[in-house]
From TrEMBL:
InterPro entries in alphabetical order: B12-dep_deHydtase_bsu, Dehydtase/Dehydtase_re
Biased composition (Low complexity): 30-43
Name the record gives this protein: Propanediol dehydratase
Name of the gene encoding the protein in the UniProt record: pduD
SUPFAM superfamilies (alphabetical): B12-dependent dehydatase associated subunit
Region (Disordered): 26-45
């Protein structure tokens, strides 16, 4: 398939139109934060619902998405105004598009995106994790890296 200027322009216009339509306020009604060091957070209807302490997995077909302590709670949008809910939804969709499962955890040990990604990697069965900071910085980490 050849990509010409007309097709590229149409794709960009569609993306920009979708971004304008998603500027609706998002409600982050969640139970009070637990004192557990980490919590799993499925991205279903209850956005970032905490279900307990995250455990190490042995599933080879999973990628951990590790978010910082303020993600979706104290901060709800990144530095360009995209809601955290939308960011998480798109990252999960991309992972699932490849036929892999996504698991979301909240890391309370640090808000540094590199440490969050390493902590997610420690719990990932596949050895791959994605760390996302509240302001939008993202790190992909693979097992065996320093």
């Amino acid at each position: 398939m050849e990509i010409n200027e007309k097709l590229l322009r149409q794709i960009i216009e569609d993306v920009l139109r979708d971004m304008k339509g998603s500027d609706k306020p998002v409600s982050f009604n969640a139970p009070a934060a637990s004192t557990a060091p980490q919590t799993a957070a499925p991205a279903g209807d209850g956005f970032l619902t905490e279900v307990g302490e995250a455990r190490q997995s042995t599933q080879q077909d999973e990628v951990i998405i590790a978010v910082g302590p303020a993600f979706g709670l104290a901060q709800t949008v990144n530095i360009v105004g995209l809601p955290h809910k939308s960011i998480l939804r798109e990252v999960i969709a991309g992972i699932e598009e490849e036929g892999i499962k996504a698991r979301v955890i909240r890391c309370f040990k640090s808000s540094d995106v590199a440490f969050v990604a390493v902590e997610g990697n420690r719990l990932s069965g596949s050895g791959i994790s994605i760390g996302i900071q509240s302001k939008g910085t993202t790190v992909i980490h693979q097992q065996g890296l320093p």
